[in-house]
């Protein structure tokens, strides 16, 4: 009888402590999940930003089309050797 009176005097019981511990674990799991999600979103945003910065050269379509025309004229009406495949891949990337 003394134990229950002491427990009630303190104001805690095993059920309340278990509920508090379970609540803390659930909140910790949610916080971890949220942190991981935000890291993924941040990585995605950085990837998009790098891609946008890499595509700034395409912001000038007249210059881009002139470069494409020059590259096509260089390779027109002549056979390609193995070392010229780099130009061909560049042109295919432009298109």
List keywords for this structure.
single chain, 95 residues, mainly alpha
Description:
- With 95 residues, this protein is mostly helical.
- Helices cover 79% and strands 0% of the residues.
- The chain contains 4 helices and no strands.
- The chain has helices spanning 2-10, 14-54, 61-75, 85-94.
- Helix 3 packs antiparallel against helix 4 (85-94).
- The longest helix has 41 residues, at 14-54.
- It is rod-shaped.
- The model has no long low-confidence stretch (mean pLDDT 76).
Stretches with pLDDT under 50, minimum 5 residues: none
Biggest pleated sheet: none
Strand content: under 5%
Radius of gyration: 33 Å
Shape: rod-shaped
Present the secondary structure layout.
Elements: H1 2-10, H2 14-54, H3 61-75, H4 85-94
Helix pairs in contact: 3-4
Short description:
By secondary structure, this protein is mostly helical.
């Amino acid at each position: 009888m003394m134990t229950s009176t002491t427990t009630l005097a303190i104001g805690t019981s095993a059920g309340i402590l278990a509920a508090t511990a379970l609540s803390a674990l659930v909140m910790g799991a949610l916080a971890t999940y949220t942190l991981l999600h935000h890291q993924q979103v941040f990585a995605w945003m950085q990837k998009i930003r790098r891609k946008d910065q890499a595509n700034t050269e395409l912001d000038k379509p007249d210059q881009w089309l002139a470069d494409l025309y020059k590259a096509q004229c260089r390779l027109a009406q002549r056979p390609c050797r193995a070392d010229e495949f780099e130009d061909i891949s560049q042109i295919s990337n432009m298109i």
